Amino acid sequence: MLPQLISSPFAWIRDQAAAKAQDALIAVLKAGPIPQHVAFILDGNRRYARSKGMPVKLGHADGFYNLRKMLEICIKLNVRCVSAYAFSIENFKRSPEEVAALMSLAEDKLLELCQKGDILDQYGIRLVVVGHRDMLPERVLAAAEKAENLTKNNNRAIFNLCMPYTSRDEITTAVHSTIRSRLEDETDDSEITAEEIEAHLMTSLSGSPPLDILVRSSGVKRLSDYMLWQCSEDTQLQFSSTYWPEFGLLDFMPIILDYQRKVWSKA
Predict the structure, then answer these.
(1) Residue from 43, 45, 62, 160 carrying the catalytic annotation
(2) Known active-site residue 234
(3) Catalytic one of 62, 66, 78, 91
(4) Averaged over 109-136, what is the pLDDT?
(5) Which of 74, 173, 176, 210 is 20 to 30 A from 199, comparing alpha carbons?
(6) pTM, rounded to two decimals
(7) DSSP run (H or E) holding 102
(8) Do residues 59 and 45 make contact, with C-beta atoms less than 8 angstroms apart?
């Protein structure tokens, strides 16, 4: 009992010191140019769980918890838009048990995120679920729509939660929407442009600014069908060897510093 009483104040002091140090690092980073749109590929949850001897579903739970932390860091840095690749359409091919666990986790976290006083309400963040929504179980879709409705008037930042998503599906949907729009306007017989298709992308419809940085964790160096259109010549691709549940400010800081260096070099 006595060791617990002694360790508790020290744990509080340690946590307070870590929070102060984080705020100081963020203040230093904010002195330079800050990206307006950062996207994350949340990779490494399963390998992280196996490395810790944990069930895979707990690895995904830690991944969602870390997404919350990184979202807060980005907002404190004044990043205008954060996008997260939470669930690919291809992930439905995983075992039924893992898919069911992920859907239950998504439902719980969506309802948690939109509660009054939680991170979206606290920082004025508007949640947008980006992807082939009809593929979501009804209960998850209901939770997503509730979260979107409760945060629709928030205007400080945008959080694109991409699930279930692939870039090919987003582009195909945008092309279909563009063609339908043209067919409804019989007076316009000009050629369809790339700009028109881009305007119908789900991220464009959410009001997202151009993508500045795309970060993938866990050491894998591929885009995995994520934001292929948005990754223009000005988008910086960054790959970190850290598993997503352990990715933090110290991993993110060199990415921001590299972005600032490249911005300054163009000035």
Answers:
(1) 43
(2) no
(3) 91
(4) 92
(5) 74
(6) 0.92
(7) helix 96-113
(8) yes
